[in-house]
Amino acid sequence: MSVLASLLDQALASGHLLESSRKNIDLLLSGSASPLAETAISELATAGEWEELNDRFFKTLAFGTGGLRGRTIGKVVTAAEQGKGGPNDRPEHPCFGTATMNFFNVSRAVRGLIAYAKRHVGPSRKAKLVFAHDTRHFSRDFAEFCAKVSTELGCDAFLYESGRATPQLSFTIRELRADAGVVLTASHNPSHDNGFKAYFNDGAQIVEPDASAIIAEVNALESEIYEALPASEHGTVTTLGAEMDRRYMDRLKSLLMQPQLLTGAKTRVVYTNLHGVGGVIIVPMLRELGFEVITVPEQDVQDGRFPTVDSPNPENAPALKMAIDLAEKEGAEIVIGTDPDNDRMGVAVRDSAGQMRLLTGNQIGSLMAWYRAKTAFEIGWLNDTTRARALFVKTFVTTELQSAIAHRYGIGVVDTLTGFKYIAEKLRKYEDAIPADKKGDYRSLDETTTRNLRLEYSRFFLFGGEESYGYLGCDFVRDKDGNGAAVMFAEVAAYAKSVGKTLADVLDDIFREFGYHEERGKSLVMEGADGAAKIQALASSYSHNPPVEVDGSAVAKIRDFATQDLFDAEGDALPKEKMLFVDLADGRSFAVRPSGTEPKIKFYLFGKTTPSDDVAASKSKVGASLDSLWSAIEADAKSRMA
Q1: 45, 8 in Cβ contact below 8 A?
Q2: Which of 62, 76, 480, 592 is the most exposed place for a label (fewest CB within 10 A)?
Q3: DSSP β-bridge partners for residue 337
Q4: Residue ranges of the alpha helices (H) in 499-570?
Q5: Counting beta carbons within 10 angstroms of the beta carbon of residue 3, is it exposed (0 to 12), middle (13 to 18) or buried (19 or more)?
């Protein structure tokens, strides 16, 4: 028995090492192509870093419908991993582990995706895969590796020359008629994380029936080692860059409903990409539209450390502080910030008192939803005959203000589970409903033509989004799009200016008409192997022991998405998911669900009032009620974990 094996067996016997960790260490050692794997594990074992080993090996990083996501830099970095070091102070090598993001897991993921894509395409041609990446540690390394594996296994690969946004990958898959694609990103997660997000041939994240088949292919692989095909059967790598950027930008302009509003608007905007890839498209795009764009120099630098922020997440106010400070200095009217892979957008706007006001994702989305619904009738996109075929698609945990807006304008609204893949699944359904002889090559048609086809034969998606700062106003992209969101929001800003109001004024007008709505996002973070178990136990406790009274109000209705057979507004069955939605008798609501991408359990709180001219009083009333509700929920959660 080797020295390492002896150390591991002793740790297992003494309770320091989990049984699953012991098994998975052997799995990685037998399936890793790197001789450094054993060196790194031995280093941790010799130092008695059992908590680190358990965190790295308590599970295999299973490929799910969201792909993979995990730490690529360990809490403890071994000398073997540090090596000579890499760019932006990262280690030379990603951390070794079956529960972490490294070449062991990326190899499994891309090979499983390739296997399914090849089977789906058949023998008549080579499968085509597109790869993009953000600025995170190892993102470029992983993307180049994926392209190499693809060609060696007989596929043609398309690789962006440098960092690009997640929604641009979605657009590119559709534009190139590719069979699948991957973006290497962990979105807004901490800098030590990375991920592998997989898309299928419609440009959307994988859903059933493809999802189960791809997941089975990936999870059946237990080694990163593979045998390349003969050179004569290899595919090619095509580098993508400025030409595809231009095609994407030209299509984004079709999101504008009243482009004349932007002529001469001369709105000054401060933009930050938070060290990510958003500036590649957003900055030139807004400048082409006539906006004066000022960027935050310190945050223009593409750096996976995200050195100027604690979290590169535009949902968090501190992430936009430098941009807001610059806006104050430059007299800018709007601040726009996007996360590293540019699928989420946060904003701050100047109110009538001259103060910068941060908006929530629900408020940003509601401004765009209201403007697009109102304007669609004003410019003739919709009328009394066609309104029934138009709709918003949003998630259950997104504000009901958007439902109120939809109902006022007589258009539909469909709620989906959390995850933009479910919104994208609806878009595929609406496209597929158009008769084949009418739609032809749908992806080559302009927006006016596709809109008319959807209004005649299917349903017209006018706007959709998630409370977590993700928005979409088209169907030529099948994921939330920070680029498109910036274009749509810029138009709303130009509209507000054209009527002599600030965006904050417009939002308050919406509250007066539809009632004040406020939502709060809260979470409890529990990391590592122990944390994952606690999260699942807490989530399960709500199903097994649902509340009957919360904060002095009786529970009026419970929707348990894990156990009940539930259907959306179109009668489509909802997949089972661990989420509980609780409606209280006093009109407040809350939902609870484990995050699919982060080590946390999330809580969503909802409060509202009836329409009133006294918006300030409504805000105060609802705010106090949600403060009280969270105190009760937090206390209950702690008692459930006791």
Answers
A1: yes
A2: 62
A3: 272, 346
A4: 503-514, 528-544
A5: exposed
Identify the DSSP state of 64.
Answer: B
Condensed to tens digits (0 to 9), the pLDDT of residues 251-272 reads 999 999 999 999 877 889 999 9
Task: Supply the pLDDT for residue 605.
Answer: 98
Residues, the chain: 642
> What is the enclosing helix (H) or strand (E) of 346?
strand 345-350
Q: Quote the CA–CA distance of 441 and 342 in Å, as a whole number.
A: 29
Interval 82-104 mean pLDDT: 97
Q: Under a CB-based contact definition with an 8 Å cutoff, are residues 69 and 186 in contact?
A: yes
Per-residue pLDDT reduced to its tens digit, 107-150 = 999 999 999 999 999 999 999 999 999 999 999 999 999 999 99
Cross-strand partners of 603: 522, 592
Catalytic center residues: 187
**Poorest-pLDDT segment among 170-174, 186-190, 626-630:** 186-190
Closest CA to 424 of 475, 470, 473: 475
Q: Give the residue-averaged pLDDT of 591-602.
A: 87
**Residue type at 548 in one-letter notation:** V
- Cβ(84)–Cβ(10) under 8 Å? no
For the chain, count helices (H), then strands (E).
Answer: 22, 21
Give the pTM. Answer: 0.94
DSSP letter (8 states) at residue 227:
-
What DSSP designation does 278 have? G
522-531 pLDDT tens trace: 999 888 778 8
Containing 447, the helix (H) or strand (E) segment is helix 447-457
